[in-house]
């Protein structure tokens, strides 16, 4: 007389649903099945091989949830965008969307989900609260904004944390990003080489990356008495409007013959404003942006810019975070920028 299927979750067709079903079929404990499928050496090789063959025959794969519970991992990474210096900015910003896309690809290939948060840091405990929620295995912060002190304080005790952004001497948190000082110097030197003598810098220097780009621009003209560099006030936003640039040009009292913008978006908005004033690019004013997003290549005219290799940046971010999740401290990574010369300069 045929025997009924084992009790528990094994269904009437004999399908194995849980490690308990597989353990009952193999005549071992559920803990032994778990260890065997995880490749633990504490289970003898013959038993491990038998369990793995049974699992393969019955097309059994342990659920990600069960695996995460055994390894004390959540299988998710928190990607956080803090907007302390520029609260009107949105995740739809092309820079954010590009980098987040690369991060999503990297994380999914390694078996992790991405949990995205946009944070307006009204209090210094915003990151502590995310960590205390205990929903992810670690955090990637996109841009330090004006929150470097918060990141340093958390990084002193919390290892699985990496930030995309600028690096400054003495910082505690691990960062991955372009050499912003060098990028700013390259962009400004290019404008000087193109004959520009009155250069405007457009960007919000409350954040680390634009401030370093401005310092690089200042370094490029340090030995030149014949060049003027004018920078925008610190409230200049990333999602800048044409009226913002109009106001800056009016208030500065000069008509620049070169513009170095802290982002491609600001640069392209500046080109639109110059057109409304009857000025041509690059004939009257030469313009250089920063990032080399897709829209820089498709604009009219195509935009000269400083390229950040965001694909490589995402790989470095995830690599560093995986090491930190495993308990290994990692140093910061500084990537080389690349000047891309197109028709706007």
Automatic annotation (TrEMBL):
InterPro entries recorded: HTH_LacI (IPR000843), LacI/GalR-like_sensor (IPR046335), Lambda_DNA-bd_dom_sf (IPR010982), Peripla_BP_I (IPR028082)
CDD domains: HTH_LacI (cd01392)
Keyword check for DNA-binding: yes
Keyword list, A-Z: DNA-binding, Transcription, Transcription regulation
Transmembrane segments: none
Any coiled-coil regions, as ranges: none
Domain HTH lacI-type, first and last residues per copy: 17-71
Domain of life of the organism encoding this protein: Bacteria
PROSITE patterns found in the cross-reference section: HTH_LACI_1, HTH_LACI_2
UniProt-recorded Gene Ontology molecular function terms: DNA-binding transcription factor activity; transcription cis-regulatory region binding
Gene3D superfamilies hit by this protein: 3.40.50.2300, lambda repressor-like DNA-binding domains
Keyword Transcription: yes
Protein name from the UniProt record: LacI family transcriptional regulator
Organism: Sphingomonas suaedae
